[in-house]
Amino acid sequence: MSIERLRRVALCLAAALSAVLALDALFPPPLERAKAYSPLVLDRDGRWLHAFATDKGRWRFKADL
């Protein structure tokens, strides 16, 4: 590949990434749905005994990262 072709590919990739980031900033995903966690039943030591799906039938568990 020639240097000019590599430059053109890099420019297209940079433009695509910029467009994705701009669209994400303009139209962010609805994060309020993610606040509904699946109810958990824990034992006295804090270990899981049972989990239930959310009202909409989804499994959503809180994760500590």
What does it look like?
The chain has 65 residues and is α+β, with helices and mostly antiparallel strands. The chain has two domains: 1-30; 31-65, no CATH class. It has one helix and two strands. It has one helix at residues 3-26, and strands spanning 40-42, 48-51. Strands 1-2 form a two-stranded antiparallel ribbon. A hairpin with a 5-residue loop joins strand 1 and strand 2 (48-51). The radius of gyration is 22 Å and the shape is elongated. It starts with a helix and ends in a 14-residue tail after the last strand. The model has no long low-confidence stretch (mean pLDDT 89).
In brief:
The chain has 65 residues and is an alpha+beta fold.
Give the overall pLDDT as a whole number: 89
Unreliable residue runs: none
Helix content: 25-40%
Strand order of the largest sheet: 1-2
Distance between the termini: 42 Å
The number of helical runs is 1
Helix and strand content put the structural class at alpha+beta
Major beta-sheet overview:
2 strands, antiparallel
Let me know the number of strands. Answer: 2
Percentage of residues in DSSP E strands: 5-15%
Shape: elongated
Task: List the helices and strands in order.
Answer: HEE
Roughly how many Å is the radius of gyration?
Answer: 22 Å
How many structurally independent domains?
2
